[in-house]
Amino acid sequence: MEYRHLGDSGLKVSTIALGGWINFESKIPEDEARQIIRTAYEGGVNFYDLADVYGYGQAERWMGAMLAEYPRHTLVISSKVFHPMSDDPNDRGLSRKHIMESIHRSLKNLGTDYLDIYFCHRADPDTPLYETIRAMDDLIHQGKVLYWGTSNWDPALLEETVRLCEANGYHPPRVEQPQYSLLYREYVEQKLLPVSRALGIGLVTYSPLAMGMLTGKYDDGIPEDSRFSTEPWSKERFFSEENVARVRKMAIVAGELGVTRAQLALAWVLRQEGVSSVITGATKVRQMEDNLGAAELKLTEDVLAELDRIFS
Fold first, then answer.
1. In this structure, how many other beta carbons lie within 10 angstroms of the beta carbon of residue 30?
2. What per-residue string of b and e applies to 68-83 under the rule 16 or more CB within 10 Å gives b?
3. CB burial class (10 A; 0-12, 13-18, 19+) of residue 126?
4. What is the DSSP secondary structure assignment for residue 167, as one 8-state letter?
5. Other CB atoms within 10 Å distance of the CB of residue 281
6. CA 197 vs CA 6, 153, 273, 301: distances in Å
7. Residue 114 in contact with residue 145, Cβ under 8 Å?
């Protein structure tokens, strides 16, 4: 496993991370979930990414209980705040009230005294930016959070955030979490990366397999029990005959390298300077094992050129 700095910070995260978005919301057996985490940990994964809204705390509770088996100093645990957690008008967003109440709830769910990284899950146009920044800075001073970051924030907003932090002596965000894959790349490469690099902000990217599209799972259509079948919005985002043809061509490249398409897709994300880690999901141990295989895979310029040709 390779470990990279989180932006300009001293924190090092494994290039492969394990996320708990949909897979740890009681949707897989507990024994299987525990074995997935064990496989990840023994494979060198130190970064585990969650959010309060994943299962409305259930994902935090599940993974927190399982991570308690390992020494805390060997783990980098993150969670997020923003999305509504109830119908109450203050139980959402990035106000000081919601941030302060949410951190306590997440810490309790996870069974830990602090989060290594706390993300603002989305930008909040209803809360002054200064209020959000000050609240995150206070959490760092209180020792409840070590580093803070953002997820799906516009590059211009990141620039404004860092400017306000520097002007007022506040801890700036050290990480941004965007979507990034062979099927969703222009925004990150053309708009986000130039800004994040200049600001010293690392990227920990999600959905590297385009919600399963890049694995070849949909080569012959959409299985009844698949994500594209149960979540139509994900199908609309990535499924098309053109993309099916691209992924089939990708299989030839992967075959020549002796790797799976999932491993090739993950290695492609990690080849990008400025990416600190890629967040993966798994519902089966073999999927986690497959993800780990991408950590040491280095792609040649010829392979990168061929992938550019296929996905152009």
1. 12
2. eeeeeeebbbbbbbbb
3. exposed
4. H
5. 23
6. 11, 15, 9, 22
7. yes
pLDDT at 106 (0 to 100): 98
Q: State both tokens at 224.
A: 């009844």
CA distance 66 to 35: 10
Structure confidence at residue 218 as a pLDDT band (50, 70, 90)? confident
* Positions marked active-site: 54
* Continuous segment of H or E residues that includes residue 256: helix 241-257
Name the amino acid, one letter, at 121: H
- What pLDDT score was predicted for residue 230? 66
Q: What is the pLDDT of residues 175-211, one digit of tens each?
A: 999 999 999 999 999 999 999 999 999 999 999 999 8
> Quick one: angle between helices 285-292 and 261-270, nearest 10?
50
| Tokens encoding 71 | 């020494």
Q: pLDDT (tens digit, 9 = 90+) per residue, 263-312?
A: 999 999 999 989 999 999 998 999 999 999 999 999 999 999 999 999 98
The residue whose two tokens read 């990227």 is: 203
Single-letter code of the amino acid located at 276: S
